[in-house]
Amino acid sequence: MASGAAGVTGRVLPSRPPRANHVDSWIRGSRSLRFIQNRGYPTMDGTNDASPSPKLHTRLRLWEFPDCYVFEPIDGLADLYLSVSRANGTMNLVEELPPRGSSTPKVQTVYGVIGVLKLAVGSYFLVITDRDCVGSYMGHAIFKVTGLKVLPCNNALSTTSSEQKKMETEFSELLDAAERTIGLHFSYDINLTLSAQRLHDLGDEYKSLPLWRQAEPRFLWNSYLLEPLIENKLNQYLLPVIQGSFQNIHAEVGSEKVNVTLIARRCTRRIGTRMWRRGADAEGYAANFVESEQIMQSKGFTASYVQVRGSMPFLWEQIVDLTYKPSFDIVRQEEAPRVLERHFHDLQKKYGAVLAVDLVNTGGGEGRLHQRYAKSIEPILSEDLRYVHFDFHRVCGHVHFERLSQLYEQIKDYLKKHRYFLINDKGEKIEEQTGTVRTNCIDCLDRTNVTQSMIGRKILESQLQRIEVLGVDDTISNHPAFDTNYKILWANHGDAISIQYSGTPALKGDFVRYGKRTTQGILNDLRNALGRYYLNNFVDGTKQDAMDLLQGNYMTSVSRDMAVPRKGGLLENYASFRLAFALVMGALMFMMMSLRHARNDVRHLLLSLLWAGLCIGVTHFVRSNGRTFTNRPRFHQSRH
């Protein structure tokens, strides 16, 4: 099948400079970013060895001894063992297992080392304990991580202070969240971070480099975690991982077999959860930036089309405060044109021409964001940068998504002009994609996925008509089995992206899946919307901290002379929504009990008024301090 990452032309985005943070015991993971920036794409000079790089280990036996972990290759690719000290994470290659002593070590099979997280309280190895094969690309298996395990290397902690042990407890919650990371995919043999077009355009010398050196830094999820392995030259353990999705379908259209693969690659530059990562940062990196590549194979031809999604690329926030829909806050409006220009400049370097499709409402809070976006992008519009606004909710409502055809009429000339990537059975390039579509709504999930699936369908029909699998006027809809599978493919794609960002499947998924709105789909949307509210307010703060930790966005000093990160004031230390909720419920219960006896005793009437006042007072206090009662990231700071 097909795979890869994105663009048309290649240039690495410069990494963001370190930013100071209000938590002194944490610092920006600038070392990782400098590493990526300095590495960029490997140069094609004499410093690179064109000989094939050693194969990655596919299966390892993990021995857990009292003083060390030992990784034993069982794939026949090497004779040396990797020994890791459980005291401080020191790594060495050894020729044999250590003596077993009186206790029997725990043994299990693992399928790769994702990397090493170095904290002030010790080092932690992340290993793959389970995997599922989800497809293949060019004969190479693609795997999804279904089991992660964190191996602590901090035995020395037993000799440190109680403050350091408390730090260990502080980090354990984040490490537990790290083990639950979803959507990780990898291959032992092929580069998943680059699109089919980019892979085709690379020379043999580049392809002979280790996979981690071929990787596009934006989509290399474990780039920071790989650093300690790179420093120790453990080349056979350097497994590149992306976060996103990989799905494919096989169908027959007439007498021809057609394979379609859909790959999502999540950018790590501004990775995060729905409410804690909005807009763009000062360098132009957008939240929820995902590259979607659709690859078709039939009759010996391979075709690919890349489109992207991402939050509106200027500084804005939507901080949770217990309300269902917190207000939008545009930050430092005067910087919007510069941030936006930087964002689109980088997109054009990577993809060529860019068509920005904005799906947000023209009224209300979304309307203010739309106005800022449209005003800021206007000075840089050109032949290679177009902007189209389409008020999805006004035109399509909640059921008439077929009206997206109005949007297609506005952009079809652009799609035809910039084409798609196409090669024949000899590997010769017939067509080249010279531009992409960048779609956004507010979350870049629900409306965006419906729109991207429409664009993907139109492109796929054009490709199939080009290689004469479909007739000139034929469409996918005329082939029911293929049509059904294709809709499910895009629905699953949208759900995977949505779950990683918001915690729930995409809304409006019934239209993508079935081609129409259904009662069950509307009920599912209601359930998922309530689920998002709960996760955004009471779960995602911890999840955001875990993401930042794994990406090196905030990194503990290697020194152990540190204080445990703490919240700020008295209210922040003791605010608890559960306690407030219990007080309100208790007050309501006592109020009802007092009201039952109020007719016979005026004191019960006064008591019921007292309990009612307490209930109202606590409710008002919680609403007034809503942001304090939510699950906030420990290291988040408003950008005002």
From TrEMBL:
InterPro entries per UniProt: SAC_dom
Q: Which UniProt keywords apply?
A: Membrane, Transmembrane, Transmembrane helix
Entry superkingdom? Eukaryota
Q: Name one Pfam family in it.
A: Syja_N
Q: Where is the SAC domain?
A: 175-503
Query: Transmembrane ranges?
Result: 575-593, 605-622
Transmembrane helix keyword on record: yes
- How is this protein named in the record? SAC domain-containing protein
Q: What is the lineage of its organism?
A: Eukaryota, Viridiplantae, Streptophyta, Embryophyta, Tracheophyta
